[in-house]
């Protein structure tokens, strides 16, 4: 845990097999984002539902919530199932953690 933040991941929340699968899915999600929007309390990531499925995003969220319980997860499936978004929010100060952990490009 950095002295600059109170946010950190509990690496013991997932076993090694779960952690490896979660890392693969995290990398897929980061690569598949087609739009990132900063919100007052976090970020929204948008995906094409033909590239990332709603179940993939839900499974990722469940695993992520185990190791990072300070996040709030908001999943949306819109436009007749073609648009998928994940909004990650949390308490004050979570945005720098999100920028680092989820490779959010600088403005």
Q: Please compute the radius of gyration using only Cα atoms.
A: 14 Å
Architecture in CATH? 2-Layer Sandwich
SS class: alpha+beta
How many strand units?
4
- Our estimate of the beta-strand percent is 15-25%
**Measured distance between first and last alpha carbons:** 25 Å
Can you tell me the CATH topology? Gyrase A, domain 2
Helix content: 25-40%
What is the molecular shape? globular
Number of helices: 3
Series of secondary-structure elements, N-terminal to C-terminal: HEEHEEH
CATH class: Alpha Beta
Mean pLDDT: 90
**Largest sheet, described in full?**
4 strands, antiparallel
Q: Strands across the major sheet, in which order?
A: 1-2-4-3
Low-confidence stretches: none
Number of domains: 1
Q: What is the topology?
A:
Elements: H1 16-32, E1 35-39, E2 42-48, H2 54-67, E3 72-78, E4 83-89, H3 94-101
Antiparallel strand pairs: 1-2, 2-4, 3-4
3D structure, described in words:
The chain contains 3 helices and 4 strands, in the order αββαββα. The protein has 107 residues and is an alpha+beta fold. Strand 1 and strand 2 form a beta hairpin. The protein is globular, with a radius of gyration of 14 Å.
């Amino acid at each position: 845990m950095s002295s600059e933040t109170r946010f950190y991941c509990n690496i013991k929340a997932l076993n090694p097999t779960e952690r490896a699968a979660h890392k693969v899915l995290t990398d897929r999600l980061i690569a598949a984002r087609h739009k990132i929007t900063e919100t007052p309390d976090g970020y929204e990531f948008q995906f094409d539902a033909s590239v990332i499925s709603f179940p993939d995003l839900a499974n990722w969220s469940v695993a992520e919530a185990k190791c990072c319980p300070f996040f709030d997860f908001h999943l949306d499936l819109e436009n007749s199932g073609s648009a998928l978004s994940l909004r990650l929010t949390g308490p004050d100060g979570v945005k720098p953690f999100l920028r680092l952990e989820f490779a959010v490009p600088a403005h």
